[in-house]
Sequence to fold (504 residues):
Amino acid sequence: MQGSVIHHLRANYLLFQIFVAGGAVLLVEIVGTRILGPFYGVSLYLWSALITVALLALSIGYALGGWYADRNSSPNRFFSLILVAGIWILLIPWIRDPIVNLVTGMGLRTAVLLSALALFAVPLGLLAMVGPFAIRLRVQELSDIGRTAGLVSCISTLGGVLSAILTGYYLIPQVGVARLTAATGLILVITSAIGLVLFRGMKALASTITLCILVLTLYVFTPIEYDVNEPGVVHIQQTQYTEVKVKDIDKGRYLYIDNATHSGMNLENGETLLPYLIPMSMTRLYFEKPGRALMIGLGGGVLATEFHHAGWHIDVVEIDSVLPEIAKQYFSLPIPDEQIFIEDGRAFLTRTNNTYDIILFDVYGSGDMPFHLVTQEVFALVKERLHEGGIFAINILTLNRDHPIFHSIASTLQPLFKHQLALSFAEQNELQNIILFSSNRSEAFELKKQPAWRYYTYVGNYASRAWKNRWIPPKGKGQILTDDLNPVDIWSEEINYSWHTKNI
Fold:
């Protein structure tokens, strides 16, 4: 009787371990975007690299696991594979920076792929090996093979399903990436250690307890968040979409999204410290009195605050629910909650019936410009939501003024708007932000108000430079971007890599 109970306990624990291992696989794949995102952006290439590495590691792991299980399918080897995978995952927060630094300079595509390979291939491969082992350990006779293989695959996949939901919906924003990664490794170590004791008896108890104490000690000293000791950091947080950091430098406060600067505010007078926002704020000069504006993409809210203080009614659309909270707490955002909409910008444009004098797009994210916000279809929505004589302004990050991303966005807007004006304060061939104005105004872009710039001030200097450098984009020089055909992800990768290299 006692032997039967132990047999069932071991059999059920084997399935539980498969469940845990399956969950760990999905968690590592998802968390991988946050581990490498601050260096490369959460971009198309990063996702492609992670999926490639995961599939490669899993396929090799399945093959090796089957071969290894046929040679010796002992429970000792089964749990040892999980144990080593857990230790490796536990070490990822410590080895990330050295690995990334090692491949820096090899180009974005190569660096992303090699970083993902070095960090994740071994633990994912080891976790893949346990599936064939579990089947080998559970099969009692040939007639059970199909049923056992199906059961093991089902349990592993269910672990992945639960892990995917918990990781994306709760664990990343609530626990943090570094601690969550280390906790995953710790869970694998502890569950595999329990399995060793359960299957090997008291012989494994002493060594298992010693190992767990050592691993637990390492976990305790794992940093709660990456860069937690960075000088000047006043807040760091994982959201559903990205890593957000607020940092004070001298008399300025900056918002970083995946280590790229997205807002900057002078702590003494509240003025923006990011020059590209100044040309966007100049859209107000085309109107005799304050009106109604829409801003898609909040950041730290410095530009929205400026419009608000100038008497404008401004609605803000931001997909990340954490950013408005940070903007209010650290950047003194005064916009009331009823004027802040937590949703995708295109979804808002589709459902709203409001119209505006000014619509501002500042949607260049941590990895790239979202392709669905720079298409002919969404720009048609923008046109519908503009008053007659309204102005649409979009921030375009580009390597230079002749880059295809700029010319294609301009060409996509040209059939919808009669007039365009581009402003930038950088040189022709520099990494720069170009602010592109589009409008159907009868008088093109003639100012209604004379700017009250004081050229010796920070804002006045950049505003005058941007106005002096204004130009009209050439007609039809770029590709028309649509929902069906849109290579903006590819173009923005090179720009994104230069941007992150500059800001890290």
In short: The longest strand covers residues 386-398. Residues 2-40 form the longest helix (39 residues).
